[in-house]
Every structure is written in structure tokens, then in C-alpha cells.
Amino acid sequence: MKLPIYIIDAFATGPMTGNPAAVVPLETWLDVTTMQAIAGEINLSETVFTVPARAAEGRHGEANFEIRWFTPIKEVDMIGHATLAAGFHLVESLKPRPDKINFISSGAVMTVAARGDALELDMPALIPKDVPSPAGLTEALGAKPAALLAAKHYLAVFERSEDVAALRPDFAALAKLPLPAVIVTAPSRDGFDFVSRFFAPANGVDEDPVSGVAHCCLAPYWSERLGRSGTVGRQISPRGGTIKCEYHRDRVLLSGAARTFLEGTIHI
Question: How far apart are the C-alpha atoms of 104 and 50, rounded to whole Å?
Fold first, then answer.
């Protein structure tokens, strides 16, 4: 069996920036064991598989696809950067070129729409609420956050961007926390509204370079804190990435660019 594969940098600001995702377009689903093995072999934070949603006809200028995401060790749900990467590939490769890709996963719908030179990803909002700090979180991060919230993942808020940049977490300890990942954030003074990092060792990804899902939580938090719907975040991982955010009640719109780094063939 031969399968096409594309490595696409999502939320990229230049060559080899942003978050690389492997995109494997399929005509029909492979078995889960094979898809997981491919993701393990690729060993990026996410490998995404798509299949045309034949039962659902898209509107004019739109196309419908089913989607599934795998880290190197497990299948996960609602991944942002890999969805943006898959949308970029489909927008660029389908004929005629669609304006919007609707991705369907377990009944939920996320969309990727072309907006000039950028792409806009429409995802469900994750609205964080204050939570008590679980045992071991401060020790695992190596610093005590000024506030702790949670929505799917922990959101640890620090007072300065330098505090976020200086973190050197104990990933083995983070992986033992009740929730699967920790977002860390602080206000920015460098032309962005906030900075962030995203640690998900329980999912097999110690630090994700640029996370869409993290910004599904960050966008509502900073929108409420700053009193406006639009914000711009900078994820300060070693690769780095910039995401423009719009928060509208139960949805977030995340905008950024994508670039194809590699095209190839998987031989199974």
C-alpha cells in the first residue's frame, strides 16, 4: 500500500516555523492500529487523517471531510494546528478550489476557511474556570502561577512573559496530573496581547510548538480579561508561532498562515 503524506507547518511565520503536522489524506479509513503505527513512525506531535464525508454534500464553495488525529502514542480529539494544516492542504489541492473545508469528528464540526493569505480556523471555545491547584503542579512547573484555571486542560497564569519563558518543567511529573496538559500564559509587552506555552506529556508531546486547542482556552480568557473580542497571542516555544484570536460566545476563530514543508509517499 502507498499513501500520500504532507508535512505542513501550521501557524507559521516563515520557513520551518510554527507547528509541523503530518497530513495523510485517505479515500476510506484504515484500521486504528495502522493509523497509530503511522503516527508513531512519523513521530510529530500530530498526524491527521482525512476521508471525504460522502454522506454530506457541501454547499457551493465548500467541501466536507471526516477527520481523526493521532499523537505518537494515542488518538486524541479536537486538535487545532493539525486541522489547520489539513485544511490548508485541501484548499490548495482540491479542484475547483474550495473556500471552506468543514471537518466532522464525532458529530462536531470545525471549519477552515481561506482568508486571503491566511486561514481561519473555527473551533469550539473552551471557557476556563478557577480551580484549586492539584498536588504537585507547582513543583512540576518549577514555579507557582498567580492563578490557575481549567477547561479540558489546566491554564496557569503568570504575571510576566519572562516567567513563562523561564519555565523548565518536570514532564514526568506533569504527566501524572489529573488533566492531560498544562497551558501557561502571561501578558506580553512585545507587540502581542499575551504569550503562552503548552505542555502535554501525558499525550506523548512534552511541549507542543504552537497549539490551536490551547488558544481555544486562551482566547476566551484574554478576551474577558482585556475586554475585547480580538487578541493576538504568541506561543514562545523554540519554533514559535503567532495566532490571531476572535472570541464569540461558544466559538473561537483562530487565524494564521501555513506552509508545505514536505511531500512524500508512505510505503506499507
Answer: 10
Would strands 194-200 and 205-207 be described as parallel, antiparallel, or unpaired?
antiparallel
Give per-residue pLDDT as tens, 160-188: 999 999 999 999 999 999 999 999 999 99
**Which listed residue (27, 46, 62, 92) is catalytic?**
46
Q: Which residues contact 58 (CB under 8 A, 6 or more apart)?
A: 64, 98, 102
- List, in order of start, the domains of the chain with CATH numbers: 2-123+255-267 (3.10.310.10), 129-249 (3.10.310.10)
pLDDT band at 190 (very low <50, low <70, confident <90, very high): confident
99 burial class (0-12, 13-18, 19+ CB within 10 angstroms)?
middle
Dihedral pair phi/psi, residue 260, rounded to 5°: -80, 125
Mean of pLDDT values over 43-52: 96
**pTM, entire model:** 0.92
Report the alpha-carbon distance of residue 165 to residue 238 in Å, rounded.
10
4 to each of 97, 197, 240, how far by Cα in Å?
19, 31, 27
Cell numbers for 49: 487523517
Rounded to whole angstroms, how far apart are CA atoms 112 and 84? 6
Say whether the peptide bond before residue 96 is cis (omega within 30 degrees of 0).
Answer: yes
Residue 224 among the catalytic residues = no
Q: Please, are residues 163 and 195 in contact by the beta-carbon 8 Å criterion?
A: no
